Structures are given as structure tokens and as C-alpha cells.
Protein 1
Amino acid sequence: MQRRLMTLMMAAATALAAAGCATMGASSHVDSGFDFARLRTFDWGSPDAFPLGDPRLDKNPIFLDHLHGAVEKQLAARGYERPVTGRPQLLIHFHANIDRRLNINAADAKYGYCLDDACRAGAREYEAGTLIVDVIDVRTNRLVWRGWAQDSVEGVLEDRDRLVRMVDAGVARMFVNFPAGALKGLQ
Amino acid sequence: MRRMLRYTSAALTMATCLASCAPVRVNSYAVPMTDMRSYRTYTWDVAELESTGDPRLDHNRFFKERVQEAIDAQMRFRGYEKVAGGTPDMTLHIHARVQQRIDSAQIDGAGGSCSQDECRSYVYDEGTLLIDIMNARTRSLIWRGWAERSLDGIVDNQDLMNQTIDRAVSVICARLPVRRLSGGRPLFARDE
């Protein structure tokens, strides 16, 4: 049983290493002095001057639709809604960035995460994606929250299902500590 | 299994150390023939921090404002005065850059966290924070200080990021001449 468990763990770790040895990281920065609890409405800001960073994501309806849906789901769960009329109190912007980064997989062998041939040490490049969601206070036009998720996107942009799963997981993880709005108490 | 736990423990120890005990390299220089006694007031250059190399920090006001607040506190402590209007003596600029680096040294051999062939190369993100002080009238550089360190695990934790900024600014500004306003004593002295 123990041997089988070890084999499974090795297989999982090797799969992660093959995907660029990067597990998803997500976190956020917040304006701790800003009172989110008095707010209830949000909307999407107009596209800004920042390109999405990769032509495979620009105007990609799968990416954009799921990103919008995932963010709206997280905000709704925390007591925010889109306004029926009038100006929203919060504006949402997003940016996506893809960089080529280097991975040295010798560390996998070092800590026993791979076996024999899978442990061949070496450096290789992989595509690292960063998805950033910014929340702007409309009244002051200031950033009050920024969340992000980072992961290897090797083979993800060409695979609809993996892209959707990654967007959903990244948005859910970055919003973990997003402050609740005024409607939360009414839910 | 015990061997794996030992290695996992070593990995966690190394990761914690990389995040919290990473050394800070600091340096500075003043432009020769600069008479710092003629500078007292300063203002901030309003340029946004962009293209830092880390998209989490680009246009990130939490990062930029923390750096500015830390520098303001250090400048105030050293006798410099921030002014909102008028004609300041100096303009301050900050630059930040994050680059992926490879450390092929025997990283923990000296610390005992690994030994012999267990000490391998690794990659990390190195951050550089640079402060430029310009002559506001001529727009020429009069002083530059910078600090470099590993940022692994730092940006994802806002409290840790703030502590790292405070420490980096503190070690940079420790190299800045101190202005003393009381009569009879030297206007400037190194506070080291």
C-alpha cells in the first residue's frame, strides 16, 4: 500500500514537473483602509491600453467569456452585483501576461520527486502565465484590490478544457480573501 | 518514506530561508563634486512603475506607495523635507526590476541544509529597488542607491512585501548623507 502511494505521488510530481514544474500560485494585495462593506455594485471597465500579452489570448472568446464568468461568480458570492442602472461603485480590469521562464529540474531529483531517468537534470524554458484582476474604486479612481494567479501554461492555450479549468481555478484562488460587500449580509 | 520526509523538511527549510533570510546587497554612489549641503527639499516624480519584469508589480499602487512612504520616513529622519509645491531642490525617482536568476553555487553547503551532491542549482526571482535623486533644476542625477535580493515568496504576501520594502529602503537610505539643522554642527555626516 505504502509502495503504491509512493508510486502515485511520484507520478503526480512527475506530471507537475513535465508541466513546467510550476504549481499554481495565487494571491492578492488590498487597500486595508478601504471600506468594501459599504459597496454593492461593480462593472467591467473599458479595455485599457495594455495588450493581453499573447496573440492566442487576444479576443479569444473562450478565455474572455470564462474569465468574465469566473470573476462575476466570485463577486456575486461575496455580495456584489452589476447595477441595473447608474454608475457602478467598482470597476474591474484584467490583464494577462505570458513570459518564457527557466526551470531547473535538478531539484526534483534532489527531493525525491522523480525516479531515475525522469530525474535527468537540466534547464528548460516554459511558458508562465500571469492573470491579474484589478478592482478600481470609481469614486477615487484608485486601485483598491489586485489579485493574480500564476502557473505554467504549456499546452494550455491550445486546449479549451484545460484553459477553462485553469481560469476557473486561478480566479477562485485569487479571490479567496476578497472582502465581502454590502449585499453579503443580506444573502 | 522517512528519507522523503527528511528531504521535504530540508526543502521547506530552504524555501523559508530563501524567503526570509535572503541577503540584501546594497550599493550607492554620489556624483562627484556634488555639494549636498545645497539640497534640502524634494518632491516625487509622478511616473508610474511599469515594465518591472513582474506583472504583479506593474502599475501596483500598493507596492509604489509603500516604497514612497518608506523613503519619505527615511528622508524625514535624515532632515530632508518633502514639499508639495514651489520649487524643490531635488526630485526623487524609484525604479524596480525583477529578473529570473540562476544560482549555481553550493547554496546551503555552508548552512548545513544540504551537503555534497544534494546542493544543486536553482532559479529564483531577483528584485532590484533603485532610488535616484535628481537636481530638480538641472534634472541631473546627484545620488543613486539600490538594493538587490531574492523575491521568492515575497510579492505573494503583502505583509512580507511591506517588510521587505521597509528593510530595502532602510539599507539604501543608510548610505544617504544626513542633514543636521542645528547650528555649529556639521550639516552632513554619515550615519553609519
Note: Residues 182-192 of chain B have pLDDT under 50 and may be disordered.
Protein 2
Amino acid sequence: MRVRVVVLLVLIVGGLAWVGSRALSGNLVYYVTPTELLEQQPAPGERLRLGGQVLPGSVHDLEDGVDFVVTDGTTRMTVVHRGAAPAMFRTGIGVVLEGSYGADGAFHSDTMLVKHGEEYRPPTDGHTPSPVQVG
Amino acid sequence: MIAFVGTAALALALTLAVYGTVASIAGLRTRNASLVESARTSAYSVLALVLVANGAMLAGLLSNDFSIAYVAENSSVDTPTFFKVLALWSADEGSLLLWNLVLAGFLAAVAFRFRSRRPETFPWAMAVMYVVIGFYLLLVLGPTTPFATLEAVPLDGRGPLPLLQNHPLMAAHPPFLYLGFIGFTVPFAFAIAALITGRVSDDWVRTTRRWTLAAWVFLTVGLALGALWSYGVLGWGGYWAWDPVENVALLPWLTATAFLHSVIVQERRGMLKVWNLSLIVGTFALTVLGTFLTRGSILSSVHTFAESIVGPMYLGFLTVVLVGGFGLIAWRREALRSEASFDTPLSRESVFLGNNVLLLVLTFIVLVGTIYPLLAEAVTGDRVSVGGPYFNRNTAPVMVLVLFLMGIGPLLPWRAASASSLLRRLRWPAWIAAVAAVALALVGAGAVGTAVAALAAFVGAATISEMARGVRAQHRARGGSWPAAASTAVRRNRRLFGGLVAHLGVLLAVAGIAWTALADRSNEVTLASGERVRVGDYELRLDGVQTREEAHRRVLVARVTVLDAADGDEVVRLQPSLNLYPASSEPIGTPSIRVGTPWNGLRDLYLSLVSVEDAGPTVVLRFFVNPGIGLLWLGGLVIALGGVIAAWPARSRAAPSPALGSVAEPREEVRV
């Protein structure tokens, strides 16, 4: 009896894990943060993916795209994106960009994914009033 | 002063919660009725104290008391009063205050509901609820500090996040979600109480049936309002982005929906007891996970997790819930033996179980996609994003199966059905589905659209024919007029008819989702003043751009006329706008929507303003034609209506059975 239950559980869990991994594969997008990118020092022209949140107030329309700053809360990096931005693109949202790190210190991308799941509030550095203990 | 009152009230409430826990258990152990009674009445005091804390924050917001950090960060002098009130739950700390208020409300409601007649598990259920509220009160008394004060008091606050003060739906959406989330604490508490006391008969299911249904209705409405908010505010033409914040609200809804069905099997046949207990523990755990994940920073990076004690506290609580809940179930497994077994795969209970499994598969798919990026970053350090296509591709086929079983389930009798009687009942729905398929193929809908429509027609016809069968049986048995027979049939079988109505709602919602998804068209256009551009079947003309100054923001309005491209007739005038808030350098848009009606093919015309160039002036617009999306909102409403019908108390004809109070249920069906 107990053996059968254990076997059943193992089968169910194994089946779910298999289905899950199959479903996920091909749908995962790996990326690095601006901080990690600077640590890696990629070769010019090397294709990689950069993820971060769009810094409020940094978005400018270009003739053939858009430029803005992404941040991971510690490091900021200018992004020059060629091509149309997705409909969900807006300030404060998380994005994953595909392209290369240029010698000009900016990230040049040609593919943009809007990364769901960032909170609506972007990281604010130096903005938060420091609370003191309740009196 | 306000900060002191608020914190003191919360601290007192926590003290009372601890007392309530101890007194409930001690009273039960020592058979001291007055001790249990005092634990029960403490619930009212907890509610009063949490009300005081929420009132204190509200007073701070309304009186612009910027010495409170939360007020300074989430309100400002110019914020309209309405949005000052909303600021109470528009950020982390405040929303936890509201969470505590709703939880205290449920606690007091349970204390009131069972004031005289009560099941024997009641003291343990109270104790469990006190532990839960104790945890959430602890969270606002140190790990987060809603009433933290500022040494240097600013002259003005930052104001609420622009995105959150842009739409009045922000007033209704979070409270409904909270009512739904927190409502599941009640069935969870009674389930745990049943496990602890060993009284694992079906009493806990009957006692909490209405509470579960109420929570489920609130959650349904909350989800629908959330989608509506997203649609009306974010300006990207959609309503659901598989954002983790959205997913975590969907997860408990899926498991709760499964639970609502499988408890019927337990009530009717005494089966699935372990399954039901597991579902309610799982549902409650998912609500805890949901609040944990939406608590700001965790979603942007796992590394923020360790920076505060809040994350570990949530994880600890979640572990206690899961290990405790499933441990108790394992401990009581002997008493949870099934009283019957499945006779044939072709029976209502089998279809219920099948749908349950499918709903759990949906839950699993959404859960994996939601937390995989967090787990991957925590374990391997890899940063990963799971895209919307993963969710769409994997949930859609399962959803189709769910729909199909939803259609045939109610047509099947309990225990065993004969295939021939099922086929006979399915004859009409099958014909209607065939007609619908042919009609759609003739109109030129694609293969997927035709298949979805045929399935929807099949399920809809099956559902309506089942309703008609009940009414006909009533009419044959009692005579009288048809409307009278219909109303009697519904009153006699509230649960069945409520369920069928909810099924029709699901059908409407799915039809809306599929229609919009299949027909989704969007275009980005740049327009100068007076210029006309053709977009699909329509033409857009920019009539001008205006600036409006409001107290708390500046509004840029683009006046656009939408024309019919074929005959040049004016269809509608839309005025999408960009709102500039002083606290934010980036404008927030407000899309303008022509709501679809049956007279215009249910087409929503959705226009959002992306940017305005001064020269010209020139505007960049996004134009979406969304047909059928109104069916989604209607569907949400109908689902909730079905839940209300099913939960509506029967007029007491017979005296309530003394053991359970008035929870005796009407028979579910009339079988003639």
C-alpha cells in the first residue's frame, strides 16, 4: 500500500517536472544586469542580452527607435534601441534587450522584450526619505 | 500623535490575537466555556483596533500629515481627496494595513456568525484564524512600519504613483482581491480545526461552503476588475499580460474553483476527502505566496530578499502552512478513507475529478512560469525571463479540455451513466455546434476561430439544455405557469443553477478572450493636425491638441475623429490624453475607448496617445480594434452572479438542524 502511494507520488511529481521542463524550454530568456555586464567586459560586437528597468524620465524618441537608460538599482546604462518599441513599453517597466555593448559605453539593441512582472514602482535611489523609529 | 495611535492600536490588536489563540485552545482543553467565549468576543476588539489603525492612517492622509513617512511618500497637498483615500492601499505598508482590516473583518464575522450555535471545531478554527492575523499584525509592527515618522518633515509629499492615481477602478480592484484572498482563511481554519480535532467528517465542508463561495465570488470580481483596470489604464490595448502580480491572483482562483467542485463530490458520495483538504491548504498557501510575491521588491530581484526580514518571515509562514497542513492530513489519513469509489469513468464525479486535475495542471503551468525566474536566480544566479507565449501556448489546450468537460459534466448523473442516454442528451448541443461551425466558416473565420466557436456553442447549448430540463421537470411535476416553474426550479436547486449560470459566464469570458486574441489588430500612426490616415477599416483624423491644467496634473488631450474608411462617415470622436504629474517626469497616458455594442459588432475602438510633438502639433497614436472584449467583462459578472445564486440562503422551510445551525443545504437537484 505504502509502496504504491510512494510510486504514484514519484510518478506524478516526475511527470509534472517533465511537462514543466518541456513547456519551459524554448521559452526562457537569459540575460545579464548592467552591473554584471560591466563586470564581464564583453568584446565589442559580442551579442548578449541585457535586462533592467527603464529609468523614468530617460526615454527619448529617435528617428528610427528610442533611447533610454536601464537600471538594476545600482548601475545605470544608456540603451540605444533601433526599431519599434513594443506596445507595453513604458517608463518603469522591465525590459530585456538583445544587442551589443558599444565602445561608446552604451548598449545598442535591435530586439526588445518587455519583461513582465516588475512592480509598478521602479527602484528609486536617493529618493526615499529615511524613516526613524516611531515615537 | 497619529503615528502613536496607529502603532499602539496595532500592538494591542496583536496582543489580543495572542490572547485569542491561547484562550481558545486553553478553554477547549479545560472545558472552560467562558474562556472560549472571551476568545470569541476578542475578535470584535481586534476588528475595532485595526479599524483605529486604518482610521489613523486615513486621518494622516486627509490632514496632509507629512511627518508620517507613508503619507509623505504616497500623498501630497494637491492630491484629490478621492485619491488620498486610495493612497491607503496604493503602497506596500498601507496595503498591509488594509489586509489586516479585511482579515479582522472576517475574524469578527466568523465570531458573529457562530455566536450561538457552533460546530465543535469552532474554538480551534478561531485559534487558527488568530494565528493567521497574528502573523499579519506582526508584519506591520517592525518588519514593515506603516507609521514610521520623519525627523525632517517635508512641506509637501511626493503624491501617489501616477499610474495608481489615474483611474477610479483603483478604488475597487484591490479591496475585492483582498476580500477574495483573505476569505479563504475561513475554510482553511475550519479544515485545520477538523484535522486537529479528528472530526474530519463532512461538517467542515458544509459549515464553510458559503464562506468559500463568497471568497470565490470576491476573487472573481477582483480579477475581472484588475483586468478592466489594466485595459483602461495601461494603454497597450490588452488586459492581461501574465504579469506575476496578475498570475498570483489567478492561482488561488484556479484551485478554489477546483475545490468548489470537488467538495460537492465529498458531500454527495463521501469521496475525495484528502483531495479537498489538500486543495484548501493549497489555496490558502497560494494566497500567502501571492501577498509575498506582490510585496514589492522580490519580483525585481531575489537579492532584495535578504535585505529585510519580511521575505524570510513570509517564507517561514508559508512553510508552516504547507508542512503543518499536509502533515496533519497525513496524520489523519486513516480517518479520511473514502466511503465510496468511482464506479465508472462515465459519471459526474469522474468528470468533476477530471476537471479538478485539469485545473491543477493550469495552476501548475502558471505557477512554474511565475516562480521559475525567482528560483533560477536564487539557485543558479542565472537571470531568466519567461515570456507571455509560454503561458498562452500551454494554458490554451488545457482550457479547451476544461471547457469540454464543463459542458458534459452537468449532463451526467452521479455514479454511472449509460453512454446512450448521454449521447441522446448531447444530440442537440452537437447539432448547434455544427451549425455554429458552418456559419463561422462561411463568414470566413479561421480554423481556430471556427473550432473555438463550435466548442463554445456546444458547451453553451449543453448548459442551457440542462437548465431547461430542470425547469421542464418542475413544470411537469407541479404544473402552473412556465415562469413560476422556472423560478421554483431555481429556488429548489440554487447550487445546480448557480453553477450552470457560472458556467455560462466562463463561456462568455472565454469567447471574449478568444475573439479578441484571434482578431487582435493594432497600429501605430503619426498624425499632424488636420491630417487623415487610413488604418484597416477606419480612418483617423487629428482635430487638434489641447492642454488642460488640473490641480494635481497637466493633461494633454488629442482630439481625434474616427471615420469609416468605406463611406467616410464619422464613427466616433476619441480623446486620448497624456497626464503629466509633478512627481513624475514621464507622462502617463489615459486611453480613450469606444465601447463595443451589439450594434457595432462588439468592436472596441481603443486609442492611446503615445507622444505629442510641439511642432505642428504632431501626435503619435496607437489604435487597436478589439472585438468581443466586452464579453469578457460580462462573463466575469455572470460568473460572480452564478456564485451568488449558489450561495444565496434558502428561505428556511424546515427547522435548521441543531448541530450545524442553518447550514443544512437544499437538495442539489430534482431528479424525476
Note: Residues 654-672 of chain B have pLDDT under 50 and may be disordered.
Protein 3
Amino acid sequence: MRSDERVFLLGEDIGHFGGAFGVTAGLYEEFGADRVIDTPIAEEGFVGAAIGAAWQGERPVVELQFADFASCPFDMIVTVAAKTHWRSGLAVPIVIRAPNGGGIRGGPFHASSPEGWFVGVPGLKVVCPGTIEDAYGLLRAAIEDDDPVMFFEHKALYRRLKGTKPPEETRTPLGRARIARSGSAATVITYGAGVELALGLEHDVEVLDLRTLWPLDREAVLDSIGRTSRALVLQEAAHSAGVASHVLALLAAEGFELLDAPPVVLAPPDTPVPFAPELEDAYLPSAHVLAAAVEDLLGY
Amino acid sequence: MLLQRTFEERTSALYRQGRISGSLYDGLGQEAVAAAAGLALEDGDVVAPLNRELATHFARGVTPADAFRNFLGRGNGPTFGRDGNMHFGVPARGVFPLVSMLGNLCPVVVGAALAFKRRGEPHVGLTFLGEGAFSVGDVHEGLNLAGVWQVPAVFILQSNGYSYSTPSSAQMVNTNLAERIQGGWSIPATRVDGTDVLLVFESIKAAVERARAGEGPQAVECVTLRGHGHAAHDDARYVPAELRESFVGRDPIERLEATLQQTGLAEQANAIRRAVVAEIAAALAEAEAAPAPDPATMEYGVYANPL
């Protein structure tokens, strides 16, 4: 915001209050009510307004209070933002930030990982950082990008990850996965909070952090599987709802001969996210369940 | 008005001849609103027209050839053959491409107006809302935001009596949209006969200038009757004869021509008519000669910055 006057923020309770998760804390004080705009509860309305402002050359960044609420402005995102450049040549540079993921006992309406709703939509880019450096670098790159970007931030990482702010010039290129750890026996393909979980594995596995979920970095997936020959896709989105199906489709169509074992998806069951601690803990992928799944994959 | 009427008479014939694919929408009887709204805007203002507002495009500098290229699905048309009929806009002319989902464009125009206000630019954003859109949540969110933010947005309420086949009385309790918009969102609104182009122009121009002067969002309700069905396949047999009869003698073009004759401008009016017929014929010929889109280019432009 300091380097580009066109950047301004829209969202619920992001001003004086600093946002439900404190992400915009201090920005209202520095940039004022004209650039940090508290909105009514009208996601379709303010995402639409962001599109209109982008039409007129601004670079709006919208905060959805919870990613679950992406259902509310869905039409504006997939109908207007995603299709406009293709059908008119008019770019729509908006970023929609949305805290996804569980672990805070949010239940069915405050803990979802709905990035799969947007994966596969032509015209949208879908991003989800798993590290502090990428949270900064991807956000800067997304704001500078001329396309609409869905920017998912795992809410458990807001407090779990500790570190200093990356250098000002840090940019993480959109559309590029990153090998978070090299390994040779298998590849864990993941993103967001899954990165930290996978890095905890003691096995000799490669961890591929997708970072951008759509368009998928197909080359990075195939390159890694070419080296390891075994794939496990780890996601917090429900089993059939996320990017895992796209990765498996890619492996089936273009990586079949690279594989020594059937690829595995480790993801929650196909239900909404449950509330009670006993249920949510069983629902979310855990370190020991991941380790067991990797053992099975390596033992195939 | 005459450009829109003549263009749409032409596309209607082309559609019946099978030379236009898909659907076909026109604005018969509503041309005064479309033309007046377009002419009320200045350089730098922006607009998001809907299906009945071809004249708004023309008033903003979109050419009949541009429009024909879209209706004919030509590769060098405003949507490159990727969308048809009235589903287009020309961003270079400040015209946002129409989106079918009614109500979407209301918040979009509010956002454009927000950009003008943030930058202190003396421009306005204008869009249209029919009774159909008025039942959509987006419209309520957009009107509310326009009021809260006090942005220079102008809403033209197209009250043509129907959304598709459903009369307004089956969609809302109070069909006086101006009253609702003024009472519900505290947005100043006037209600005028939408077939009187001079009155419509005066009303919309005044609203645009109030918005430009910093008086916040404005609305003008224009009461008309949709002259045809929703689209070319719809014969509008559900419109009661009494309602049709109440609009006899209220064709906006005939009304203006009568005024021009009374003021001794009949010859000029006839000259305009001849020029429009020639312009439309030339534009159609130009569009028909334009190349079809190349399927090999289908994936171009999905992204402004391809990865």
C-alpha cells in the first residue's frame, strides 16, 4: 500500500478493529478510512465494487472474513471477474483474501477449505501459501498480477508460524510450485498448512508445496514424480472437493508410466468440517495418520 | 433512438433468416431511455448497459459495425465471437461488457464510481436496473453501498412491466421503484414517462450532474412497455390487450418526430432517417465481411497474465 496508491482494502471489520484475525491491524491508522474500507455484510456487493474499481484502474484487495463466505460472492467471482478478460479484453486485477482451514473449532461455517470451488475455473488464479515468505511474496505478486486471484490463508498458520517480515522485494511467482524438501522415496504434494505437516515426516520423501493451486504447476508435479515414482496428495479440503482430483487426473493421464504405486489422497472425509474437538481432530489430517499413509505408500 | 430501432429491425430480420445464432433481444419502445442515458454522459464517465440499451452503446461511441460484429459472432468483434447478441461492451469506450446475471452490474458500477470518488475525478458511473434485477440481492447490496459510500453512481430504472413473462405485480408489492429506492436507500429518485425522450434526457442529465457535483447516488425511473417479448422466441402473448392499448401512440421515436414536425424540423428528421438507414446498411456489410473467429485462438486471453 505504501508503494502503490491504487491498492486499497475492502472487507468486514478490517478498519479500526483490524480484521477478525488481525491481519489488517495498523493499516487503518496508517492509510485511513479511504484505503481501508469497512463494508456492510454484503460480499457480493463489495466484491462487485472491487471489480468496478479494478475496471477503473485500481488494485483492490478484498478480505472475506472466512473462506466459507466465498459462497456469498461466488457469482461475482466466477461470472464477472473470471470471464471478463476472455470475453472483452478488460483485465480485472483484484485479490480476494480468504482465511480457510480448521483447527480453531470453527465448525461447518468457519473452518472450510473451499479452494476447490475455484480450482478449474478459467480466468481465476488460486493461491494458498504455506510459509511466511510465500504469504508475503505471493500476496505481493497477486496484487501486481492483472488477473483475479483467490488468495487462501490457512487461519491456523496466522499464529502457528513465527518469523520476521521478508524483504520488501520478495516476490513468489504465481503458478510455480516449490520443492520444500528434497527426497527420493515418494513425493508429498500439498499446500497451505499441509506443508508444515509434511515437513515433519521422518521418511525420505520429497515435499512439493504447490503454492498456486490453479493453474496447476503440472511440470513441477510430473518432474518430482519422475524422480520419486510415488505420490501422496495431502489436503485439508474434503476428499473429493479440492485440488487432489486434478493432481490425480494429471498423474493418470501424463504420469502413469512414472508411477510405481497407485497415488494416494490423504484428505478429510466428504463431510462438512465438524465442531466438537473429538470430531475435528479426527477429521483433519494429522501427523500420525500422514506417517502411516506414507508407510503404506512406501511399502506398496 | 433511430439507430437502435433500425439496427434492431435489421437484426430481427437476420435472426428470422437464420443468419444470427443464439438469442436475440431488442429494446423496442425503450429506445428513449437508452439514448438519453448515453447522451447524458460526458467523456470519462462509464456505463454498464443491459439488453435493451443498444442506443447507450452508440451514444458512447460504439459503432453499429462493432455491434453487428458481436451479433454475427465475428472474430474481430468486441467479444471476439466468444459471446453474442447484446452481451458485449467496449471498455475502450467506457462501456462495461454486459453480464447476463441480472444485478451483477449494479455493484460493479458502484465500484467504478468509488474509484472516481477516491481519486477526486469528476466522473460518474451509470447502469440500468429493470424490475427483474430489482428482485436480486446484488442490487440491494449495490444500492446500499452506493448510499453508504455516497459515490457518483446513477441508476436508471427500466420499468417496462415485465421480467420475461412475469408481470411486475407478481414480483413485488410496490411496483413504484422510485418510491422504493428513495424510501429504502435514501437515494433521490424521480419517476418519468420513459417514452418522452426530451423529458427522459432532462431528468437523467439532471441526475448525472447532481452525482457529478458530489450529491451522491441518484436514480431515475423510466416507465415504458417492452415492445416485444423477452427475446425473439417470445411472442409476449401474456401481455393483456388493455396494457398494450394504453401504450398506443407512445412510441418514443414517433413522439419525437411529431414534436420535430410541429417545430418545423420535419425535413431534418427525414434526412436523419435516410442517413441512419444508410449507416446501418454499411455497418452490416462491413460486419458481414469480417472474418469468423479462428477456433485455434479459443484459449487466448483466458488470463491477462498467462502463467
Note: The CA atoms of residues 83 and 94 of chain B lie 19 Å apart.
Protein 4
Amino acid sequence: MELRIENHRFTPAEIVVPAHQPVVIHIKNLDATAEEFDSSALKVEKVIAGHGEGSVHLRPLAPGRYPFKGEYHEATAQGVVVVK
Amino acid sequence: MLGAAVITFREVIEAGLIVGIVLAASHGVAGRGRVVSAGIALGVLGAALLAAFADRLNAAFVGSGQELFQAAILLAAVVMLAWHNIWMASHGRAMAREVRALGAEVSEGRRSVRMLGMVVGIAVLREGSEVVLFLYGVAAAGGASGLGILGGGAIGLAGGVLVAVLMYRGLLAIPAGRLFAVTGWLITLLAAGMASQAVVFLQQGGYAAILAEPLWDTRWLLAEDSILGRLFHTLVGYTDQPDGLQLVAYGATVLAITALARMVRVSHQRAQTAFATKTRFG
């Protein structure tokens, strides 16, 4: 699954993944400065450098909504992983 | 400005607690102030370098190298904390009675304090790199608000220093005879929490996709994300949704450190008794 950070926002802000399957999210930061992809629901925390990228491995998830945020720009960097 | 202060404070709390515990645990060892200061300075330098070269390191870190790095330095810190406790098991009593210049014991004390200094450096490196990246991003955006946010960062840092001072003072209020038992336990739980944290990074990086299902959820009781939650996260390794592998790592670390320390203490006492007996009747 691909996720982009642009202008301190996540695109797409809502990611849909299948339930009970491990998923990898590739995050690309198009901004010039770093962002920290952070979600306590997903148990994920990763710094993505400006113009950088990285991947996070999600455990198999039960159906539901799992919010995530960009810790350095919380006001605008918000998103959710929807598990169906 | 307030937002920057809060974000910075949240990151440096962990390092502040560790500095306070390390200072109390090494109370009485000559030169430990210098060692801990060096640890902090090196950690800050490392954090600045990590942040400055984040772009270049990113080529190596693309994918999941960052998680491997985080897990590796956390596990290195676990080993150093364990080493300190095991050293204390054989020399703790001498420490509690104010260390005199006892040659080998003092140099071993210094080695043990250097271990703690490195643990401080690792903690400052980890938290510091996030703070540096955050503040740099803000400063790069420029403008008058940039200065205000840097000021907020300074306030957050001062808050971290306050946490370290409060932890240290609070621990020193404990009577000297019990201080090393208490710091010993704090260090064991600190190490166990770090081992549990290392596991989460390995799982996030796809290196340990086993026992990853959260076993319970105590976010209603205390959210790991809150300030109090972060304090407990560092102090005792509290996490609101622990998975099986985290519990295994936590338990194994506590068991390993206490068992090894006990073995060393018993063997040291036996050696002392044998020596005393020999010199009396020899």
C-alpha cells in the first residue's frame, strides 16, 4: 500500500486493507522536512526524512478503524487505516 | 510555541528519566558526573549527525533499516544495564559504604559507570534525533513563528532536565542502605521495557512477525501516548496493547538479570568466605 506525505498531509487520508492479513505500507515523504508516522493503534512509529521514504509492516488486524498521525504536524497530518 | 514545547517535552521525558536513574544508581562513584555528561554530549552530537545525514542514511534505511538500528541500540542498552546490575551484585555493599580507593573495585566501578554513560548516550541519541528533525523542520520553514517554535523547543528541553533532576532528587531521598536495591530494580525494569520496545521495532520492520497479536488493551486505564503513560512506559515498560513477543522479551530480561545477578552475588560471597577462612586458619 502506498502513502504519500505532501504539505504535511497524508494522501490518501484513508487506507483500506483486508482483515487478518499482514500488510506493508510504503510511505513517501514529498515534503522537504521530516515527519514521524505515528500510530498507537497500529503500534507503529517511524521517522521519514524529508524527500525520503520507508516501509512499515502492520500485523494482521481485526476489522475496525486504526487512526494514525504525523507527530510533527498533528494539526494537518491525520489519517486512518480501515480494516475490512 | 506551546505545541513545540509539548512535542519536545514528550520526546525528552524518556531521556530525562534515564539520566535521573543513572545518576542515582552511580551515586558515590568518583567521576560519574563527567561520564554522564559525556554520554549526554555524545548523544546530542550523534542525534545532530543522524538528523543531518538522514537524507543520505535514508538510502541505506529505505525499507526497514531504521527499525533494525533502533532495535540494535535498544538491545545494546539492555546489555549495558544488565552488566551494571550484575557488577553491582558483587560490589554493591562496598558502594553503599562510600567507595574508597580500592584499586580494582574502583576501576570496575568506573567501567560500570561508563556502561551507564553509554546507556544515557543511547537514550539521548534516540530521543534527540527526533527532536532535532522536528525543530530543524520548523526552523527551515522560517519566519517569526519559527523563532517562537524554537523557543518552545527550548522550554520542552528544560522540562526534560527538570524531570531528570526530580527523578534524581526523589531517588536520593531513599536511605543509602536501600538506594542501590531500589535503583537495581529500576534498572532491571528499564532494561525490560527497552527489550519490549526493541521487539516492537523488529515487528514493525517485518523481522519478527510472530506473537504480534495484542493480548489486552488498557488504553481506557492509561494511554501509552499520554504524558503519564510515557513516564510509566520508560520506568516500567508499560504498554497499553502488549503482544506475546513483548511479554516474552520483558519477562526473559527480568529473569535473566535477576538470575545472573544472584548467581554472581552468591559466588562472590562464597569466594569471600573461603578467603576469610583460609587467612584465618592458613
Note: The first helix of chain B runs from residue 2 to 25.
